[in-house]
Amino acid sequence: MSMDLEELVVSRTFRVPAVEGPAGDGTMATRQFDAVLMSAGFKLSGALFARLSGLAAGTVIDTAVRVLPMVRRLVGDHVEHNVYFRDFPANVPSTVEFWTECLVRALGDELAAEASIRSGAVNLLALPGYGTYQHDYAEMIAAHDELIASVRDRVTVLHAGMTLSEEVSALYLSMAGSVTPFGTEDVAVLRELALHCATGPQPAAVPVREHRAILNEVRLAAGADLLVDTVTDVLRLACLLSDGDVSLLEPTRFRSFRRPVRRALLAALDGVIAAQPAKLGDVGVRREAWKRLGERLHPHEYPRYDSAAQVFAVARGELAAPSFASRLERMLADGDVVGAARLLRSAPGMLFRSMDNLLRKAFGDLEREGVLLELTGAVEEVSGRVLLSVREHLDNRESGEMRIFANRSGRGAVLPDERYPIAPEVLDLLREMIDREITRRLDVPLPLVIDPEILEVALPLSGKGIGDGLGVLPRGSVTTVDAELLRFFVYWHERAVRTDFDLSAVLLDRDFTSIGWLSYTNLTEVGGVHSGDITAAPDGASEFIDVRLDKVEAALVLPQVNIYTGEGFDEVRESFFGYMSRDAYQQGAPYEPRTVRAKSDLRGAGRTALPLAFFRHADGRWRAKWLHLHLSGSPEFNRVESNQLTTATLARAVVERRYLTVAYLVGLLSATTESVLWDGGPITEPVTFIGLARPDGLPAGSTVVTPENLRDLIPA
Question: Global pTM?
Answer without folding.
Answer: 0.90
